[in-house]
Amino acid sequence: QVQLVESGGGFVQSGGSLRLSCVASGRIVSFTTMAWYRQALGKQRELVAAITGGGITTYADSVKGRFTISRDKASRKFFLEINSLLLGTPAVYSCMRRGGGEYWGQGTQVTVSS
Predict the structure, then answer these.
(1) How many angstroms from the chain centroid is the CA of residue 34?
(2) For residue 41, what pLDDT is reported?
(3) Nearest to 24 by CA among 7, 37, 39
(4) Reading across the β-sheet that carries 67-71, which strands appear in turn?
(5) What tens digit of pLDDT does each residue of 47-87 get?
(6) Considering only CA atoms, which of 9, 10, 34 is closest in space to residue 20?
């Protein structure tokens, strides 16, 4: 089993920045994909950014140029740098790691205020 724990969420002003972290523990094996998703209240969960084991990154069109996904060398931690946050409904950002199974964290909430 693999456990994922996110951190770094909170309140931030419109236009501000945050850095979300996701730490993996347990029976870690090589991963194929690590990704961040977000879900606002009343909306479907959406993929925000992903990175493959080979380092290829993909982003949702709505966040391109503002968000950056990265990971550490051991692939136990991965991050989401969020810049130029837009005013909107609060969203819960969750990390997902695929490798030896698919694992999800509990999420961390990001609230953007004016």
Answers:
(1) 9
(2) 87
(3) 7
(4) 2-7, 18-26, 77-82, 67-71
(5) 999 999 999 999 999 999 999 999 988 888 999 999 998 88
(6) 9
Q: How far is CA 53 from each of CA 33, 69, 70, 90, rounded to the nearest angstrom? A: 6, 13, 11, 30
Alpha-carbon span 102 to 106, nearest angstrom = 14
**C-beta separation of 67 from 73 below 8 A:** no
CA distances from residue 43 to 22, 35, 51 in whole angstroms, order as listed: 23, 19, 24
Judged by DSSP in three states, 3 sits in strand
Please give the C-alpha separations between residue 111 and each of 15, 47, 75, 105, in angstroms, as whole numbers: 12, 18, 28, 18
Output the six-digit token pair for 4. Answer: 């994922």
Average pLDDT over residues 10-30: 92
For the chain, the 3-state helix, strand and coil shares in percent, each to the nearest 5, are 5, 55, 40
Rounded Cα gap, residues 110 and 90, in angstroms? 6
Amino acid at site 69:
I
